[in-house]
């Protein structure tokens, strides 16, 4: 334990993320602070950057800025940040962006999308935008099925980033998955609301990926 505190003192000129990385590694080695390093402020626990963030400085910055945006906008119930093997994923409840059954972005969502766009613009990693719906069928002239609705929503978010914030379209992609990738069973209104979402995925560049696949490791 004495060695632990001596090492911390020697980190006075080292960047914070490296200090946190050491603390996380040390805690795992001696079984301190099970579940990872957390900083508690008031009644809310704040998780530190996950291991993937220590390996990629850009991802560490993105992760921290996404968490700060969630806190600042008071959208803890509508936004979730998760780590992937090869990046990060921001899950946005559709109610934060769209009215039910439409693809036009709500004006109330502009401040949120502006913050996300600023984060995207600071880096250079590829970003995927994915639309999802619940399993309630939609059949209108514009949206014959949930495929069209989810795709239109994803594309509209992409267009907002490109047109409003001049983000290179070469970095962005959009896709719709309809009701076919639920995160929870569509058993009631509360659960269906969780499946109606837009995912914004920040991918590590191909050369820097630590692994393949979309396995989710931790949620915040």
Short description, anyone?
With 220 residues, the chain is an alpha+beta fold. It has seven helices and eight strands. The two termini are 29 Å apart.
Task: Reconstruct the topology from this structure.
Elements (H helix, E strand, L loop, with lengths): L1 H8 L6 H15 L7 E4 L2 E4 L3 H5 L1 H17 L5 E6 L2 E7 L16 H13 L4 E6 L13 H20 L6 E5 L12 H7 L1 E7 L12 E4 L1
Helix pairs in contact: 4-5, 5-6
Structure write-up:
A six-stranded mixed beta sheet has the order 6-5-7-4-3-8. Strands 1-2 form a two-stranded antiparallel sheet. It folds into two domains: 1-48, no CATH class; 54-219, 60s Ribosomal Protein L30, Chain: A (2-Layer Sandwich). It has seven helices and eight strands, in the order ααββααββαβαβαββ. The longest helix has 20 residues, at 146-165. Helix 4 (57-73) runs antiparallel to helix 5 and helix 5 crosses helix 6. Helix content is 39%, strand content 20%. The protein has 220 residues and is α+β, with helices and mostly antiparallel strands.
Task: Tell me the number of helical segments per DSSP (H or I, 4 or more residues long).
Answer: 7
Overall number of domains: 2
Give the quaternary arrangement of the chains.
single chain
Main CATH class of the largest domain: Alpha Beta
Q: Helix share of residues?
A: 25-40%
Average pLDDT: 77
Gross morphology: globular
CATH topology of the largest domain: 60s Ribosomal Protein L30, Chain: A
| String of helices and strands | HHEEHHEEHEHEHEE
Estimated structural class: alpha+beta
Can you tell me the CATH superfamily of the largest domain?
A: OmpA-like domain
